[in-house]
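Quick question about two entries, pasted in order.
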Amino acid sequence: MIRPSFVPPPPIRELRELTRYRKTQIDARAAEIQRLEKVLQDAGIKLTSVASKVLTQSGRAITEALIAGERDGARLAELAKGKMRPKIPALTEALTGHFASHHAVACRRILCHLDFLDESIAALTAQIDARTAAFAPVYASLLPVPGFDRLTVDVIIAETGADMTRFPTAGDLASWVGLCPGSYESAGKRRQVATTAGNQWLRRALLESGRAAARTKHSYFGAQYRQIARRRGPNKAAVAVAHSLIELVWHLLSTGEVFEDLGEDYFTKRQDPERRARRLVAQLEELGFNVTLEAAAATAA
């Protein structure tokens, strides 16, 4: 098996440095948003009990008003925008807390840091876009894949150079990334263990994409995730989807084929009809029904 010993050419090394640093900035931004929510919660401001996120346009306006000295919950709620407007009564109650001066200091520093991180991420993205302009066919090939966005494809290019000739098979690429089952042997007995070590940057990007692909509707990857999650849990299901995604990357970039989703009914079509019927009958019987099966008459052509 190929191990992660690839030394890419200078342009790819430069790109890799930029994408990895951008990821650290994105992680820092996420941590700051969590810190902001924690400060607001400490002040009794339960913004996320009404809004799905703390740092929306409405959340930013409300936080700025709190820092400026506004404490009236009704006035703060009136700063809500768009879809948050119908929630003003609930917001009024959620925004009535005990926001103090030290909370204002912390929130101001957090918002300033977030603005700095946004600027840093934007500057890095501009540099990455300039260096990946020659990879337009790679983006065209991979962006239609569920769960993939431009950031993910940036990482795939930076970590692999988009050069699949280094990997004889899709399995070799999956092993290099660290998305193949490992094995442990002792006293002549072998058992499967966690996935093998590999390229942590690409592995993480693919796991995030795997979870995103699992949420897509009418997709093979969503069906794959649900089927495995029922039996083995969400984490192993996400790894399995990520494994499928990296193998798909190898096939698309190796053959130049256009992505076509196999569909959410892929696994249903592959099931043995009698076995599926028995499973459905068992489910109905668990719900307290008596089930009698009768074959449907064949329709005339």
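Here is the second entry:
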Amino acid sequence: MFDAVTALALCQYGDSAYPAGGFAFSWGVEGLAADGLLEGAADLDELICEHLEARWNTMDRPLLRRAFRADDLEAVAAIDSLADVSTPSAPMREGSRRAGRALLGVSARLGHSRSRAYRAMMEGNERLGHLPVVQAVVYRDGGLALEAAELVSGWTLVNGLASAAVRLGVIGHVEAQGGLTAARGHLARLVAEPCPDEQRPSSFTPLIDIAISRNPSRHVRMFTT
């Protein structure tokens, strides 16, 4: 069980009001809704499950774990490069880097030393800054243990998906809370399962990737992804 300080840190980092730029990313919610493939709470629940099982648990989580345990920032940068080549979708790569760099910027401005050093290291290398790798740096800087870092990483994804759906009018605020409750149990089950250190990061979310790839061609959009 987490102590009070860790529990409060989870609340802070997992809060949608944390100024890390997450409001700009829907991670496919906007595109799927525009294509008529996301029309209510049941569809959103399925989307959250797909994100958690087929992307976060198999891509973000292994990358975060490796980066969190890395001995130095050079090793973190190597894992960041792995994240880049492991993401075939160009819009997803760009979104991951933009979200990661926004989060890192907040942590650096708060004076966290590891975050500031990694931000300086990334200068001039546009391929670095992927979200799960940056989460490892930021949450370690914030004093979280690995297990707590995994939880807040998964929860910020879930919270972001639900928030995007509300802002797009796909669901209401009360329905969103029902979806968050269901996702809470799902995420808890995933983090209770082992994640082998040798697991290669991978994802298979073709409908989400297609919806995000179509975003630049849409006449009106609210989100980057």
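Reply: The domain at 37-211 is CATH 1.10.4190.10 (Urease accessory protein UreF). The longest helix spans residues 41-69. Hope that helps.
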